[in-house]
């Protein structure tokens, strides 16, 4: 393991978010490569404690592994993680273009395994999207970025009022955008919705509810997610994939398929076939 923060050498920047920078780092004594997320702890973003807490307690092949948490300076945390050498599903999409159904079945299978693990630990991710799904060159997919995630006592009785409003609204479920109208199911159902939108995006190559290149406003996104008619999948899409997306994107959270139901959906089972 890595005992001393001073043994780590920054090699380059892998990415950044609103409150963080992620570096590729070298552990000099072992020559091992890691990713290190540097987060400033300010009073206006009290979420950091959740991120480190969640990473410290999770252990799954489908969740990015944490190898240590350091505090190099007061008010700054360094989260050492396994390095995912193909970046995120978003980087892969930009580099290679839209995903085949075979590849998507594999991605769906692994992401669902990750969500199944997290939900069994009473962790809701709350920000599932292509840029938070990390990937290796051999296409192992792991859930990352727990910046807005929460550990709850009981996912079925928790409401979004208690979970904060951070996240990426384009991937948010109807019940999270408008809890009055859509009722509140199990908060785990929100992660399923976000995964459905993500897979659809990876298939068509752009955010699915709008034409490629269009940057919709918050209101336009809410209108289409909560009330609009969804676009059709391209003609060549299989019935299994189309049905899988319908099961993820059921507007009523109580009717939406759960992670364990989706794990035995015919589309996901395609991944197990030789
Ligand atoms: P955002 O606010 O944009 O969601 P963030 O500040 O929450 O970002 P992360 O999503 O955790 O930060 O990481 C930002 C980027 O850094 C990722 O999109 C990815 O490109 C890169 N990255 C993060 N973790 C790793 C890792 N373990 N291996 C390789 N690259 C990583
Ligand atoms: Mg992120």
How does this model look, in words?
- With 274 residues, the protein is of the alpha+beta class.
- Helices cover 33% and strands 19% of the residues.
- It has helices at 48-57, 89-96, 101-120, 174-177, 179-182, 188-204, 218-226, 239-248, 259-263, 266-269, and strands at 8-16, 20-27, 32-40, 66-73, 76-82, 123-124, 133-135, 141-143, 150-151.
- It has a 5-stranded antiparallel β-sheet, covered by helices on one side.
- Helix 3 runs antiparallel to helix 6 (188-204).
- The radius of gyration is 19 Å and the shape is globular.
- It binds adenosine-5'-triphosphate and magnesium ion.
- Magnesium ion is lined by residues 17, 131-132, 145.
Flag low-confidence runs: none
List cofactors, ions and other ligands: adenosine-5'-triphosphate, magnesium ion
Strand content: 15-25%
Counting helices, strands and paired strands, the structural category is: alpha+beta
Head-to-tail CA distance between termini: 37 Å
Provide the helix percentage. Answer: 25-40%
Strand order in space, largest sheet: 1-2-3-5-4
Count of DSSP strands: 9
What are the defining features of this structure?
5-stranded antiparallel sheet, alpha+beta, 274 residues, binds magnesium ion, globular, 9 strands
Task: Describe the structure concisely for a colleague.
It contains ten helices and nine strands. By secondary structure, the chain is α+β, with helices and mostly antiparallel strands.
Topology, element by element:
Elements: E1 8-16, E2 20-27, E3 32-40, H1 48-57, E4 66-73, E5 76-82, H2 89-96, H3 101-120, E6 123-124, E7 133-135, E8 141-143, E9 150-151, H4 174-177, H5 179-182, H6 188-204, H7 218-226, H8 239-248, H9 259-263, H10 266-269
Antiparallel strand pairs: 1-2, 2-3, 3-5, 4-5, 6-9, 7-8
Helix pairs in contact: 3-6, 6-8
Magnesium ion binds at residues 17, 131-132, 145.
